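PROTEIN FOLDING TASK:
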Amino acid sequence: MGVVELVLVRHGESDGNVAAATAVAADAEVIDIGLRDADVGLSPVGVDQAKALGPALRDWLPDTEPTSVWSSPYTRAVETGRIALEVAGLELPMSIDERIRDRELGVLDLLTSKGVAARFPDEVERRRWLGKFYHRPSGGESWADVILRVRSFLSDLDRVEDGKRVLIVCHDLLVLTFRYICERLSEQQMLEIGATTPVKNVSVTRLVRNDDLTWTLAGFNDVTHLEQQDVSVTRHPGERQAPPGESPVPDPADEPATNREELR
């Protein structure tokens, strides 16, 4: 049957989230973080969010079912998983897979929407034409590229973790990608979910497999564990998307995202 349940967690607020918010507030073109994306860790708020996740994991991951843990190799995801598992008192080894890393932005990395418009106007026009789903910035990935690598990951996961529930710590676009694949969503459905319900930091999304091998969404973007412990809820969304049928484009007037995901 393969994996029986996916418990998807977005990483906690990162230093990159904070740096990008500062850049947008200052009307800057460049996000000043001084680290490659893979090395950006959690902010103090992100650490508190990861700690608050711990008690919830004890409820979501009872000992009655075998569980494994996988994480993006990016520091902010690994730290979130490690802290939450320690607080929960769950001695579960964490496996790392590069296929569930965040989307790579290529030449647009570390740029705000204003920076993209000023430095790469051709990319803006390409994105306007191709749409958010298929636009691949030079040296980077499209959403469709990310989906392909997650399909490969899920195929291997079914083989390696047959009959298990799997906790996956990853990124906001990756949460949407798992939903896209498992629920067999359309491009427009995925875009609409991302536009109307940005994935919050340390939110939990659950997908349960049915006997006929289809998947059911059992919960999405749940941050009850943060609210119950009075820990800040942060969403740091990606750029605002256009309504269905329209091609979204970077717009400095959009609600600012709060890390490199501004252009995701």
